[in-house]
Amino acid sequence: MGVVTTLLCAALVASIGNEQQLIEEQVDTHLSRMTVSEKVGQLIMIGFGGTKSNEEIRLWVGQRKVGGAVLFSRNIVDLAQTAKLTRDIAKLSLDLPPFIALDQEGGNVVRVKDGATVLPGNMTLGATRSPMLSMVSGQSMGIDLRRLGFNMNLAPVLDINSNPRNPVIGVRSFGEEAQLVGQLGAWFIRGQQEVGVSSVAKHFPGHGDTQSDSHFSMPAISADEARLFELELEPFVASISAGVDAVMTAHIAIPKVLESPDLPATLSKKLLTDILRKRLGFEGVVITDGLEMQGIVKKFGSGEAAVRAILAGADMAMILWTKSKKEEVYQALLSAVRSGRLSVSRLDESVRRILRVKYRRGLFDSPETSLSTLMQDRNYNALHRRVSREVARAGTTLVRNHGDMLPLRTHRYRKVVVMAPPGPLATRLAAEANIEVVKIPWRTSRSLRRKITEKLLRAAQGADALVFAVVNRSHVSVVQNVLRRAPALPSAMVSLASPYFLEYVPQIDAYVCAYSYQPVAQEAVADGLLGKLPMKGRLPVTLPGYYEAGHRAKEGVTAALHP
């Protein structure tokens, strides 16, 4: 048995080596045929307006041979339109196929819903603490996206949410523990890439400890180099070990580490070349975050920032929104090559990395599912929807349960008043004979919040318990107002978003975290509240002053009746 195993391992290593050698030969041949302008085009990843192939996309993909195109909600209508658009884009450049990418993180960041798995989000996965669920989530997502015509997903987010006040990461993170984030991220990447979709780990070196949004200003983290390697970089190290195809940079300052206090990480040679390439050994593609974000544009401008990013060690400059900025970046890179500021050898280095990933993921030779086949088999991803449902169920977390308030028991509560936004949670609870649901819109004005408060207080007369499902601080303010005026009633709050909402209503008797407002998360919460499923997730973050990461409360005795 030992000899057979040794021979099989040797054969596998030889096969992998032969495949890598073939890819290198293909890359060499392709690179030798490319013009300078085509090589420059490969260094750019663009966005565009419209829901079908248009003059803009034909210029950039068909003529200028950009390395990739990113689709957003503005480009996506439904399954048939999306699949046709991705295939039309691919046909524009069969000799240099583009990455066709999107942000399909799950949770708060979902671009396509028709025909693709919609996961509850990373923090729900973090609450499951399951590498297996993370891997099959990546597989499910990848299969759906590849059938739709995408070959790259700008996910997963590997930022560690170490700062509860972070305005841009939050539930997009797996949690606050570096090892957990790295483990779940690495398995998600393995699952997604093994079915042919490149993963992009973001936002390097870690955006989790910032207190501002780089879309509007340049955030800073106070970490020194030792802390960076101990915490922020650990998930990226795990992703590199998992063979991640690409890494996206963050527009953040790290005054104690980078060359100057206000230099964005995206433009730092010390970070991208010395640390990411040399010390961490990353050989894949480095993509900048959007070069129209104010965190970088204010000081450098998009074109100059693109050139500096490539010189620092990036391979692709992402420019997504305005036509003038795309032109600025293209001309700046072309001029930098022609002037010698960006050498041809450095240009070839990046193009080689890009082509290597494209060959590895089969962009040159992998046939797409035909549009007719795709439309005939619209129900093919029913299993993937089950994966999403299982993540939601396993991640729903009972954080607090004073007095065994949950699950709701019909023999105990004659009348329960629930505040919830429109959706499956409200619908399922409203079907119970003893539950009255007062709906609250997803977005509310001050006057509307006052009206809902009064409606809840009227409904609460004669009630035995109150339950509030919240998505944002406006919803939380209604909870605060109601509890001030009805403090004696047992009350529970369900967060369909940030787990940190507990700090605003510390007197609440029961607290449940779903970390997501996606329908599958709402369905799982409804079943948990009614005692149909146990709420077995564990906090992936610390709630300062209340509960540590890993905590979960015990459910009431009724939960044992519904294993």
Structure in words:
The structure is a single chain. The protein has about 575 residues and is of the alpha/beta class. About 45% of the residues lie in helices and about 10% in strands. It contains 20 helices and 14 strands. It has helices at about 1-35, 35-40, 55-65, 80-90, 120-130, 130-150, 180-195, 225-230, 235-240, 270-280, 295-300, 300-310, 325-340, 345-360, 370-375, 380-395, 425-430, 445-460, 475-485, 520-530; strands spanning about 45, 70, 100, 150-155, 200-205, 245-250, 285, 315-320, 395-400, 415-420, 435-440, 465-470, 490-495, 510-515. The chain has an 8-stranded parallel beta sheet with strand order 7-6-5-4-3-2-1-8. Strands 9-14-13-12-10-11 form a 6-stranded mixed beta sheet, sandwiched between helices. Strand 4 (about 150-155), helix 7 and strand 5 (about 200-205) form a beta-alpha-beta unit. The longest helix is centred in the first third of the chain and has 32 residues, at about 1-35.
